[in-house]
Amino acid sequence: MAIAKAERLMNLALCLLGTRRPLSKRELRESIEAYLEAGSDDSFNRMFERDKDDLRELGLVIETVENLDGEVGYLARRDSNRLPPITLDAEEAAALGLAAKVWQQARLAGAASGALQKLRAAGLPEDVDPYEAHGALEPHIPVHEAAFEPLMLALRDRRPVVFDYRKATAAHPETRHVELWALECWRGHWYVAGWDRDRAAERVFRLSRITGKVRARAGRYTAEVPDVVTVRETVASWAGEIADRSALIRLRSGSGYPLRAKAVSVRELGDGWDELEIPYGHGLDAWLVEFGPDVVVLEPAELRADVVDRLRAVAKG
Question: pTM of the predicted model, to two decimals?
């Protein structure tokens, strides 16, 4: 059984690498003997999808292309599957081993292990153990959002996605069509950056605000992927991290601990309220709205007006 599957995967890989145009499922089935022997269309479809996922896990870049008639085809371009020689010194290998330890989820752990095995085969120094313990540090990045895995897989395969997204200031989610660029974790929350097709602009989305399922779509990206994607810098600016002035707010006692951690000064007002001076930068109005009735903006006037406008928009739904 193992030999038969390996032969089937090899034949599929050769078909995808040897074609100059996308091949449909029908054409691939007619070209590979094991697929011809499949008992039914359902059996073939399940076998093909498993094989395609296995090849991608092995590192083959398989593109999904939809023609003008709506038929989906597959190919693996040679230039996309050709890598330069890989050379790593001991320090670089140790860094990769440490990065592999970060992923504790079963699927990602397997992918990280497989990647290190490929590096070993590509010439990783024999005297370097990427899994060797490095002090007492045991890194771990938690992932609780259901959207993470489908986004990670779509990002790996360069496939556009569709999902419903609820902004902090909106009562109902909106459908977004996004070409993914990067996934990053910032202060315990995961964010994805990409090109929003509907708005024709770069956008960053917080995964915890994605509702429903993430659906991958066929076809190529329409926008150029930048060499550097500044996810953390963008989120920091939205959260008021990049500030050039101060704002004065009134905050209910015992609430708003993230605001208190950023406060330049705190003064008790009595009657269950405190007065805080906090850094004021782009996006602070959106962040303050998240605290609802626990926050009242005192100054500056434009910040107060922006917060009031956002609250009214939420109230209108």
Answer: 0.46
Listing DSSP states for 113-152 in one string gives HHHHHHHHHTT--TT--TTS--TT---------TTHHHHH
- The tens digit of pLDDT for each residue in 277-306 reads 998 877 788 788 888 899 999 999 999 998
Looking up tokens 């897989």 gives: 153
Q: In this structure, what is the dihedral angle of CA atoms 109, 231, 263, 282, given to the nearest 10 degrees?
A: -160
For residue 181, give the nearest of 171, 189, 191 by alpha carbon: 191
Q: Which DSSP symbol is given to 158?
A: T
249 exposure class (CB count in 10 Å sphere: 0-12, 13-18, 19+): buried
Collapse the DSSP code of 185 into the 3-class scheme (helix H, G, I; strand E, B; otherwise coil) and give the result.
Answer: strand
For the stretch 179-190, pLDDT in tens is: 999 888 776 678
The answer to whether the Cα torsion of 101, 107, 108, 111 is positive or negative is positive
CA–CA distance, 109 with 104 (Å, rounded to integer): 6
Start-to-end CA distance of the chain, whole Å, equals: 57
Tell me whether residue 248 is exposed, middle or buried, using C-beta atoms within 10 angstroms of its C-beta: 0 to 12, 13 to 18, 19 or more. Answer: middle
Partners of 163 in the β-ladder:
176
What is the pLDDT at residue 126?
53
Q: Which residue has the tokens 């007002």?
A: 269
Taking the CA of residue 165 as centre, how many other CA atoms within 13 Å lie in the half-sphere pointing to its CB? 19
Q: What's the pLDDT tens digit per position in 222-243?
A: 999 888 887 777 776 655 555 6
Which residues lie below 8 Å from residue 85, measured CB to CB, with a gap of 6+?
122, 123
Determine contact, residues 278/249, Cβ cutoff 8 Å. yes
Q: Are 263 and 275 in contact (CB under 8 A)?
A: no
Pairing of strands 265-270, 63-66: unpaired
pLDDT digits (tens, 9 = 90+) for 53-67: 888 887 788 888 887
